[in-house]
Specification:
Largest sheet: 5 strands, antiparallel
Number of strands: 9
Radius of gyration: 13 Å
Order of helices and strands: EHEEEEHEEEE
Strand content: 25-35%
Shape: globular
Strand order of the largest sheet: 1-2-4-5-3
Distance between the termini: 27 Å
Amino acid sequence: MHRTLLVLPLVLLLACGDDDGTATATSMDMTTGGTNALGQLCGDGEPDCPADHGCVVFSLIGGSATQGYCSPLCENDADCNEGFAGPGSASCFRSPECAISCTTPMSPGECPAGLTCLPTGGPTSACGVPE
């Protein structure tokens, strides 16, 4: 299995931060081929993501540092939304990863199963795996 580690600032889409005022997204397990499984849990003992997906772990306030969700590789918002039924609002955060935004922190109903709406430190919240 090929593993790639990519760290991205989360400030552009979510205007956010974590405990020290920074935010990052980590992408690993990039592969090729597949269907949209945006929001499927991955990392830290979870199954690998389908082809053409990465396992995205966003550093969010109260979020897991080792578990995230599958994201199709994206160049624009349409790549994230094609086949994504929600809940949450998908967007191509910063090529090549999709982010799922939500509005009410600590609300699991606004995110796909296993994810919770977590605060970012800014005006927008994002779906992530709680600690």
